[in-house]
Amino acid sequence: MAVFTPLDDAQVADFLTRYAVGDFAALKGVPQGTENSTFFVTTDQGEWVLTLFEQGEFEDLPFFVDLLDYLDAQGLPVPGPVHDRQGVALQRLAGRPALLFPRMPGSHPSAPNLAQCAALGDALGRMHQVSQRFTGQRDNPRNLAWLRRRHREVLPHLESSDQALMREEIAAYATAFADADLPRGAIHGDLFRDNTLYDGDRLGGIIDFYNGCTGELLFDLAIVINDWTSDATGEIDRARYDAILSAYLAHRPLSDAERALWPLMLRMTALRYWLSRLLVIHVDPPAHDITPHDPARFRTLLTRRLEGEVPPLPA
C-alpha cells in the first residue's frame, strides 16, 4: 500500500456516489507499499479501502475481481470488491483503474503465534479446496518458465558461487517438475505475513491478491511456510510449521507427488523471491521512489533449505 496518485476529498466524495456505501466523511492516504496507491475512506456507513492501480497488467484486473468475488461468496476471509449501483466493481478514478473494498479488521502479525498460524493454515486449506473449482484463468507470472528465462539477466551481477547455485537449482527444478502432476487452482501467489490482518488470534482478512493466478497449490503453501515459519537464519520453527500444516491438511490432504516434491518446492519459492528482488535492484528498478527489498533474505532461505533437513509433513 502507498500513495503515488494523490486524491482530494471532493474527488473521493464524488466517486463514492457510484456506490451504496453512504456519504463521504474522511480520507487518509496509506504510506506503506510498492506498487499501487491506497487510501482509507470513511463514510457514515463504515470504513473502506480505495486502491488505484499504478502499474502492472491492467487486463488482469477482471481476474482478480472475479477471484475475490468467488472466494468471498465461499465464506473466505477476503475483501470482496464493492460493486457500484449497476453491479460493476472495476472503475476509473484520476485516470487510474480503481477498486473499492470493505476495510478488513486487524493488523499484520510480525511474529505470529501458534493460534494465528493455525488460523492461516485453516483459511489457506479452505481456500485451496474451493479454488480448484474457480473457472478463471491467469498463468502464474513467476513460474518455472519465468525462472529459467529471467535468471540469466542477473547472473552478471552475482559472484561465481551464486551464479553456480542459481543455475544448478533451476536445472534441478526443470528435471523434477517436468512431468509432475500437481493439483492446481487459483492461488494467492504472495501470502506473506503483511498480506494478512489479525484481530487478536482471529484472522480478519487475507489481502492483496494482485499476484493471484492459476498455479500449483503447493507453490502457494511453500511461500507461506518459508515466510511464516523461518527465523532470521532461515531455520524453520517446528511448532509454527506443524500448526500451519496440520490445519491446512485437515481441508486438503497432499498427494503423493506433492509430498515427494515438498522440499524442492520450498527451495524453488525461495529462489523465486531471491531472483525477483535481484531483478528489481539490477534490471527492473521500481517505477516509484521506494527502497527495494533485500534479496539476501531469500538467498539465506534457499541455502538453509539445501543444508538443513525439512521437517516431515504431518500425516
Structure description:
By secondary structure, the protein is an alpha+beta fold. The protein has two domains: 94 residues, Phosphorylase Kinase, domain 1, CATH 3.30.200; 194 residues, Aminoglycoside 3'-phosphotransferase, Chain: A, domain 2. Helix content is 42%, strand content 15%. The strands form three sheets. A five-stranded antiparallel beta sheet has the order 1-2-3-5-4, covered by helices on one side. Strands 6-9 form a two-stranded antiparallel sheet. Helix 4 runs antiparallel to helix 5, helix 4 packs parallel to helix 8 and helix 6 crosses helix 8. It is globular and about 55 Å long. The two termini are 38 Å apart. The mean pLDDT is 95.
Q: Which residues sit in consecutive blocks of at least 5 with pLDDT less than 50? A: none
How many independent structural domains?
2
Structural class: alpha+beta
Strand order of the largest sheet: 1-2-3-5-4
Number of helices: 9
Mean of the pLDDT scores? Answer: 95
User: CATH first level of the largest domain: which class?
Assistant: Alpha Beta
Question: What fold name stands as the CATH topology of the largest domain?
Answer: Aminoglycoside 3'-phosphotransferase, Chain: A, domain 2
Q: Please tally the β strands and state the result.
A: 9
How large is the share of residues in beta strands? 5-15%
How does the overall form come out from the CA principal axes?
globular
Q: Main β-sheet: number of strands, strand sense, barrel status?
A: 5 strands, antiparallel
Order of helices and strands: HEEEHEEHHHEEEEHHHH
Helix content: 40-55%
End-to-end separation = 38 Å
CATH architecture of the largest domain: Alpha-Beta Complex
